[in-house]
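Handoff note, outgoing to incoming analyst
You'll be picking up this chain. Sequence as last confirmed:
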Amino acid sequence: MARISKKPVNEKLLSKIYKLFYEVFSRYEGQEDFLSIIDDILSPTEKIMLSKRLAMIYLLIKKVDYRDITETLKVSSATVTFYSAMFYKKDSKVVNIISNMLKKEKVLYYLDDFFADIIIHPGIHKGDWQSYWDHKRKQENRKILP
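Most recent structure output, in case you need it:
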């Protein structure tokens, strides 16, 4: 858990700090810039903590079992329960964003499978068997991922 000073900051000042935080993060040009900003601002522990929280929410949305989440992410079951309750009780932006990402992912997988069924015809042309098995491996990998 990240430690924070017990001395409270004035609400007006805290609002300005959040605005600065937003401004810094909203100005990146791409993934490399974003990761560079993250490296500059966050400690390795903070990066791991935030990444685990997002991964936990992602896995909860995908309905992965709590025990699997605790084993995979090396977090306590109480932590998983806390985040599950916290994000499902309120209308969370993070949950909405990840849910929308998953919906788009499902659509992309459907389109990929649809076009593969149309284009790949093993046995008709040389080399199509390779494409067929490559596509089957991609489908199986999707099933393995949570």
